[in-house]
Amino acid sequence: MSTSQSLNIIPIEYSLQTYQRSNQDTSMLHRPVVKEGEWVQAGDLLSDCASSIGGEFSIGQNILIAYLPWEGYNYEDAILISERLVYDDLYTSIHIERYDISTEKNPYGIEKITKDIVLLKDTTELNHLDKNGIAQLGAWLKEGDILVGKITPTESKKEVARYVQLYNDILGKKINYAIRDSSLRVPRGLEAKVIRVKTFPERKNETKNWENKIGLKSKALAFSVQHFLSKNQSNKKRTLSLKSKWEKETSLSSFSSLAWQKKSPLFFVFKNGIFEKLKNFPKKKKKNERVFALKKKSSKKFRFFELQKKFRFFFRNFFFFKAPKKKSPLFFFFKSETFDKERNFQKMSPNQSKQNWVKISIKKEWQKVGSFGKKKASKGKISFFPSFPQASLVGKASFFSPSRFEKKRDASNFLKSSCISSVHIYLAEKRKVQVGDKMAGRHGNKGIISQILPRQDMPYLPDGTPIDMALNPLGVPSRMNVGQIYECLLGLAGKHLGEQYRIQPFDEAFGPEASRSFVFSKLYSAKTKTGQSWLFQPTNPGKLKLFDGRTGNCFDQAITTGYSYMIKLVHLVDEKIHCLTVDHEVLTTKGWIPLNKVKTSHFVATLKKNGQLVYQNPTNIYHYPEFKGELYHIKNVNLDLLVTLNHRMYVKNGIIEATSSVDYQLIPAKDIVGQHKKYCKTAFWDKENYQFILPSVISNSIVIPEKTMNMEAWLQFFGIWIAEGWALTNTISNNNVTNFNQSSSSPYVVQISIKKKKVLEILNNVIPILGYSFNYYDNNITICDKQLWAYLRPLSLGNPYRKLPIWVWDLSQDQARVLLLAMITVFKNGTNSKWEKAASLSSRLSLASVFPEFLKKRIDKGLSYYTSSVELADDISRLALHAGWSGNNYLLKKKGSISSFDGKQIICQFDIWRISIIQSKNQPAVNHGYHSKGKEEVLPYQGAVYCLSVPNEIFYVRRNGLSVWTGNSRSSGPYSLITQQPLKGRSKHGGQRLGEMEVWAIEAYGAAFTLLELLTIKSDDVTGRLTIWDYVLYKKPLYIGTPASFKVLICELQALCLDIGIYKADKSNILKQINVSSMG
Amino acid sequence: MAIEKYFIPDFVELQRRSFQRFLETGLIEELNKRNPITNSQKDLEILLYPEYYKLAPPRWNSLDAILLSKTYSCRLYVPAQLTNRKTKQIMFKWVQLGDIPLMSKRGHFVVNGAARVIINQIVRGPGLYFSEIQYNVDSSKKTLVRRYAAEFISMRGTWLRLSIDKEKMIWAELKKTPKIPLVWFLLGMGLTEKILFQSLTQPKRLLYNYLDYLKIDNLAIDVKSQNDAFAKRALLRELLLKSKLNSSNIKTLKNSKDFKPLLLVNDIYSEMHSYKEKENRRYPLNSQNGDLADEKEKIPYYANSSLKALELIYSKITNTKKITNLNKKFFAKQGQKWIFKKFMNPRTYDLGLHGRLSLNKKLSLSLPLSQRTLTMYDVLVATEHLLRVEQGLLGTDDIDNLKNRRVRTSSDLIQMQIGIGLLRLEKNIRSKFTTIKGVPKINYFFSTKPLNGALKEFFGTNPLSQFMDMINPLAEMTHKRRLTTLGPGGVSRDTATMDIRGIHPTHYGRICPVETPEGKNAGLVNALTTFARVNPEGLIETPFYKVYKGQVQKKAGFFYLSAEKEEKAIIAAGDLNLSKTGFLPKGLIPVRKFDEFTKVLRNYVDFMSVSPLQMISVATSLVPFLEHDDANRALMGANMQRQAVPLVRSEQAIVGTGIETRIASDSGHVIRAKAGGLVGYVSGQKIRIYTFVSNF
After folding, report:
1. By three-state DSSP, how is residue A622 classified?
2. Which of A268, A533, A638, B327 fits as disulfide partner to A924, beta carbons 3.0 to 4.6 Å?
3. Which CATH homologous superfamily contains domain B491-615?
4. If you average pLDDT over residues A414-443, what whole number do you get?
């Protein structure tokens, strides 16, 4: 037996969750249920969670419900609730969301998380931020408020001579670089409280950048340090200025500033490193090497105990420099994990490695210290650093509690302020119940809240209690979930008796109708025990007489009323966003327009189901500025799309070879990830042939009449001209011109430069057909005709500004092809020599029929157009679509790029675009498995997304010049206001037909009555009134027709073989039979 | 007595126990599979000692891992031994193989700061299944032809299918490869003609595939015109051909002592060989292109030896028609390699213990249990069985029966993935063997990348590793108890038929008939019932009380029965009123025997259900008065409680089912005292309890 002396009292601590975020953003917390001084047994409940009460899983409320229709607000299972549920917070839930921000590098520098945002200096926007630029704990934030301040440099830093820089630093001069405010702000529609902030001072992948940086700047650094060391240390101003400069230079500032304090052992390490760098002390280097060697060894052991031994040794070595005098949390930088970086050291030179080592220890490890110590301390094993009591001291403090930060603030302040690279900030939002929320009971009786009524308007019980919720009585019979009625009535009894019931399902073991008899007996005892006789009326068991809250009148019939357990369901709204990112462009009749600039007035290229191209106005444009989620990115040689996961792609199964558009379907992107699918790039352009007429001009006071052109010839001519021609006024007759008799008189010259034989051949054919004569000289074809000149002159712009005239869009598909091919002939020869060789070869060997596919490919590759005009490039890709093909725009050469041509260096003055025309392979396949040129990925994304909806549901879009058909935003059409369900087939022209349940009700009411109503009242009422208005409006003589029901009646009677008819009296009172079907 | 009634097993036990099993045996088993790793000269060998593996404590606890966006995992260390036979050195070292994600107490994993659940997958258990296939002969769908197939389902590796097609030809089928005549396949597996035809009761049935080949008319003429011997054979052939229509002929043939069946068959194919050779001579061009033989693709060459069969198999799967004397050997070698790779290599094909057990049982074989790959005997006996099934002597299997379906728990899935990771590691090590210079050290060979990569892949992309549904504790718990037929190795939701989605009699007490999602996943994603458990074999078991002479033996405890064991038992429902002494009521009692409901006297009853809740899932058992609800609505009711948002103030339901407490406690969301004691401190942050512990 143990005596009382041998009893040990051990405290066991249970830490509780406080508003943790769950995967679905609901909150998780613990609510203690025990009181101090209570005795608990093992297994007893200590604390509830967010969805339990007294250890019982409970997620809802027992509320007073009645099954009654209320002004039609119960339509389609909708629910009517009392405002009490809102104001008493009965259905209020807390949702916790996490927002992340991290700094990134752009060409001008690294972003910075700071409160120091110049642009907002004079506003109140920064008031709630702490000095690091992060919203303070507990701050109540609204939409648009800054969560984390961040600035992005937008201008590269100017290189300043080093002495100037030093001068600036010493005098504390700050150079303001251009920055942009890129703060994280509270998204739309959110009003929430900051409940947790986590800062991350380091990022793994950054270490490498650091290395480079250190390497680059080491000279400057050394210089500064040397400078400093030679000066008096008490010069605080200077050290500070130096510090600030370093802050800009490297993130090592934390280090340097620490160094100034001279209390930390780190300083000495650092100093030592620097010395070595400057003077290469051989002795010390050796020592350090020893230390490193030790580290290498020790890192391979995983036993902590062993590590600890090494540690002591290691520290002893370091104490040579300086032992810590005071508590310094930074001391723990020398932690076991540091050694894991061993591999890095090996790669680096000793000098570099030293710096790096110190740096890594700071960056990587300072955060882990707490948790590590904590673990050790709590386990009660040998303390990790037995000789330093502060280890356990730090360890005991909870890592995440702000108090710990508080303690450490002095030492780690600069660390924090300058090193934060990413912040997680948690916002807790209170969501009260509102219209549109989904609620449900436990029997599958779900509905959407349609109206919130003031409690005085709700129907009330005989004792005056207003009901909380009105459910549709039609929701019970057809659904056959009678359990809800039992529950509701037993709830009523339980509420009045103050009892709770736990009933296992399948209680038939206790006799037939066990549930019903139990419920009624409980109701009865509630009546007898409370003395409230209305609770149970034998005539209407389970039903109560309710009173209308608005009038105080009793309802006609007794109503099922009782307490039911109702729950609030999460809403899944993300389903509704199907969009693209802003870098997509949409094809409209006004050219390619960025997605965010499209208006409903634009005509957007859409695709009919039969594959025909039609221009339509978008019906709606969607803009979600704060989308947060994942995007689907598909990139291929021929297509490039970046869309939300539920954006619908216009694809078909990859294996199907047929070119028809029948197999294409709109499938959400998330469902085709990784699948072999084919996209579509072309359309059929159904247009009549266009006839171009050259407008008339006045020449020498003679009107030259309009000229109808031969389209084939004209298109060929025009195509070549727009590519390589110009029109000019030849005012001074120069020698060249005089040489050509025919045109010497005319100053209006249209010229085409000929570089290819083929082009000359074509023009030789074409120009005579058009009725012009031409000269060929010096690789130029010259036509002198004023009419032609007058038309072409305005189009004859400099190369970068060229575009196609509007009539081009009226061309038929074949005509568009002719024009396009004509334009391309100009470039064909040069780029196509390979193909032509192959073609000639194959024709010689008469193998052309053997390799048609091969040849086609060649053609595809060959058809390209080159231009420096952005507009023309866009026009051509549109023309390609009209031609039943498609065009991909590539930026061939950037402005300012240099290429050599014939040994000469040529600098591009403009961007050069290449438009490659795809004729046959317009169904780019993805994931076909032949080769892996394409890219398909799902990326996290935060930012704006856009979309539009068009009647045809499919529109033409391109990203990076690669165009493709894709689905529009939303197709399910309008949503019912009450039930929030898509109307789909139930709506026509905005009207809404009867709901499913209402139809059942009508069936019960009697189809005969309905028929009667429709035939008599409704039909005559509407049509009669319409016709009368018609007559009134158009001032016709009034004529009142026969009621429809009357017609029906006559037809019925005629069907019974009765001789019956409608007769109309003439002016002369002669009766004339009227045919029933022709009656007005 | 009363406590028995309220006994309900822990709800997330399934996940925890499975992970425990993984740590105890699965991990060791998987490591052992890779042991030892040797280089090609066999002078270097790496041997792991998996039994002594150690896990370092995780850096973060599961809660911190979520906050820091880290993975809740621990490092796996295994002692490794490097034997250098050249230098006669043995080195020994602990090596780190990788990070193993740990399951939290609540039964989920934390990967990159997000709680993830690995849901249990129901797959067809490894073994052999016979099934019937119905073909429409004409388009009017009036005349159906019944054909049969046997399917070898492996735990890992390709599924082999022996099937009889519309034309009664027998094939061996594999996914993504053209089908192969079964004779080829059997010969290719290593059987000889003699064994093959002697061990089958109807050897000629196998030759059916070639009968059409023999039909070529001019052969008969040719043969006849040759000499007497040939004419005789031709006659035999004719008779054989007729025999498929009329079996009496063959009987008479059998009876006449000249023609033993085997002889007959031998004759037939020897004739075929001679014919073919001749033909090759006659039409060298045609045979080279293979045109003649492939007029109808179905007509294959006959193979008389394994070598020939392998040649043919390889030419078939690679779709090369030309077999010349030059590439003959190569083809045979490749064919052999192919078959070995697909079915004989323990690294790529694995029946699993249960697969071997079930095969042995079904085919009455006695192969050793360590034989985890397919053998030629398996296929041979399966062929024999298939032919018997065709004759109607044996029945087909019901693939929807739960005895034929197994649950792959989270541990099985992780174990498989670790297997993949270790395979990569092994490959890595092997390649390092070839590049080493001097005296290697153990650490040089090991890297954590292969294993970590494989696990990361699994947790990140596998559809069975899901983002945990944490809306409320019920959602979390049902997520962990979910059973799905989807995912790799399962069915796809587009091709799933109604049969798979439907309820099967064996679901009783194992899979909830109510709780399943609405929509396209209906019936494919299921929920485990409250009392069910998954045994180490992956079969779902449900408890019953033993009934002895009409008395329910409650004190004898639960008898957990799997679907197979339950098949023959007579089971009474759980909601019967018992007498005080535990006897069933007198008179006829409604009982169930597999799929029929009858009434029997109490003395015939074998078992009684434990509770009415036994047949429904956790979420469903939260619905009060469930028996009064239509099943569709009960389904919605069960599903919607999972979507309920925790409220700032919620209430206990006035009407409940009594299982609410268990849900709260088993979900691990509420805190329960680990030991008794005095509450010393309570705040929103922590609770401190002073426990008295006596020192001994």
Report:
1. strand
2. A638
3. DNA-directed RNA polymerase, beta subunit, external 1 domain (2.30.150.10)
4. 80
